[in-house]
Write a structure and sequence with these properties.
- It is a single chain.
- The chain has six helices and 43 strands.
- By secondary structure, the chain is mainly β.
- It folds into five domains: 128 residues, Sandwich (Immunoglobulin-like); 131 residues, Immunoglobulin-like (Sandwich), CATH 2.60.40.10; 133 residues, Immunoglobulins (Immunoglobulin-like, Sandwich), CATH 2.60.40.10; 128 residues, Immunoglobulins (Immunoglobulin-like, Sandwich); 111 residues, no CATH class.
- The chain has a six-stranded mixed beta sheet with strand order 11-19-18-13-14-15, with no helix packed on it. Strands 22, 23, 24, 27, 28 and 29 form a six-stranded antiparallel beta sheet that branches. Strands 32, 33, 34, 37, 38 and 39 form a six-stranded antiparallel beta sheet that branches.
- Helix 5 runs antiparallel to helix 6.
- The protein is elongated, with a radius of gyration of 60 Å.
- The relative contact order is 0.06.
- Its main location: membrane.
- It is found in: Membrane.
- This is Ig-like domain-containing protein.
Amino acid sequence: LCAMLVCEGRVVKVPVRPLVRVEGQAVSIRCDVSDYEGPRDQEFEWSLILADDKLLSLVSTFDSNFVDPSVRDRVNSGDISYNKLGDAAVELKFKKVRATDSGLYRCSTPSTDTLISGNYYADVELKVIGDSLKVAPAIPKSAVSEGESVELQCNTTRSFAEHTFLSVIWSIRKESSPLQEILTFGPDNKIKVGGNYTQRYTDGGLQLDLRGGGFYGLVLKRAKPSDQGEYVCMAQEWVRQGEEGRNWRKILEKSEEMGKVVVTPTELQFKVNLTASLNPQSTSEPTELRCEVVDLLHLQDGRLGVTWSYSANTPGEVSQKKITIASVNEQGALIASSEYQQRLDSGDIAVTRRESNIFVLRMLQTRDADMGSYSCGVTAWKPTQKSGWEKAKEVQSAPVTVQWTPKIPVLQVLAHRVREASTGGSTFEMSCQVTGQNLKNPGYSVLIRFEETLGGKSRKVLSLSQDSVLQLEEWSEPSRIDSVVLEKTGQLEYRFRLYGAQVTDRGFYYCDVTAWTRDQTQDWIKAISAESSKIEIAFVHTGPVFNISIHSEANNVLIGDTVQMKCVISILEASPNTGKYCLCNVYTVCLSALNSTHLSLLVSFFLRSHAVLHPVGNYHLMWESLKMPVGYGLTAAVIASLLSVLLGLAVAHCCFSRNPMHTPRPRNKLMELEMD
């Protein structure tokens, strides 16, 4: 440990860097000692090193006779003195340092150590400069109008610049208020902005002009009335201190009044013109209103906003109530009213800004309810000191009327008979010609309606939508689904056909047509409907009428296969005495009202009777092949005699005879039934 202490030894420290001070100011030079032995309270001596390395004694903490006679008067007067800062620290003090005091100063400590080690003195340089800093302020144009620029110039000069640095501060005094700092530049080339001017500096409203040669300029752009006041320019001279020079010490400061700046307020001026660049002449046409700000003066860094309003042109009302459509605020944000929120969201109404001074209101499809007066109000906003916005001026435009004579949609449907159903089972055909007026790009839907009696309850048959989708409505007979047809045969022509007209089909048929137009979302909107004249099916009924349909599981079979066919017969208007119906062809079939309508003869038949008034009597189903008459005849000849054979042949020939022109078909397959 002793060896280590001997190695370290005593340490005497003074400031490392040269001390630059201004003549006439008080100066203090500190000296510290550490790592010493002996008494805790250490003694110090200060001397000035002369040119020939001789020492000029100044002050001593323990020897009053240490002072050199040449400086005794200054020591006795207190101009040069020392101040003990502690047991191991002292400072040399000059009450008013002189230029001749510049030089190299030594701080010494007498040894109290067992062994002489370390350093027992340290030297520091003192440079005393004259008070040469001068500030010459100038304001080239002290009276400006609002919106113009103000330049604040500070010219600085000094005779000594080594080891010193300058800073410049611009301040303003408004009336009796204290000085308010605007901006500080230096001493390390950094910029410090006053609290009330931060946003303005960020927005580019404060600009430095550093031309060099001691010239410092600050430009206030877009002057405001609040910039009016007395301006002050202050220059400060600084030196670095500390071992690493991180700290600054101000050694000199000069402040000069720059003069008063007068800012003449200028009134914000502008006009608003509203015109209709697109004026609709009918419903669904677009509307475009253009709101333009003209003759704009003294807006400077202000902003413009707009509010669109509407009022209905109600006859007899002197004052019209205005309804706000939407507005654009100073931030450019769109604010929609509740009445128009949905149309603005869907894009039917658009509020935009074409240029900084032009606002546009556009309605893509103008409605009848949109007719009325429109106006725009333009608001000018100016920034406040607290980074906000305040309304400076508002100008309302003259109203513009959006008006047209509404064209009422007209729809006519003309129906005429193309083919008449003169008898049961024939085809009925009618055509409907559509004529529309005052309809924009319409689509038509057609519904065929049926009335049993004129003016009675109608029944929907089938329809064709505006998108050409065919829909069977209340026509629900399974066996007659394909009996009705509706098709578009021309651009505005539709045809309806009814195949196999029946007694129940008699009545009145007509077209129910609806015109559709599209909205801004391309959805269909119903415009108008119209009905055609009524076309009657009125053929005279002459007796029972029935319809026959046959269905087979398979058309081609081999010998020995089983096949099943279903024959559906619909009978209408049958009299009470009607009792027998026959199907005649290669196979002759008669049906009668037995307890069962099912015959297990390889072929199954089903009888369905509809609307029979008195279903009393016998219905017979008879089936003969080419071999059956011969078989019956031979059996009758053996059993009953020749008369029975003749009677059987006569009956077979009378009721179920073959067609003499018919060519026998091959019998290796079952034949399809043919019906008249």
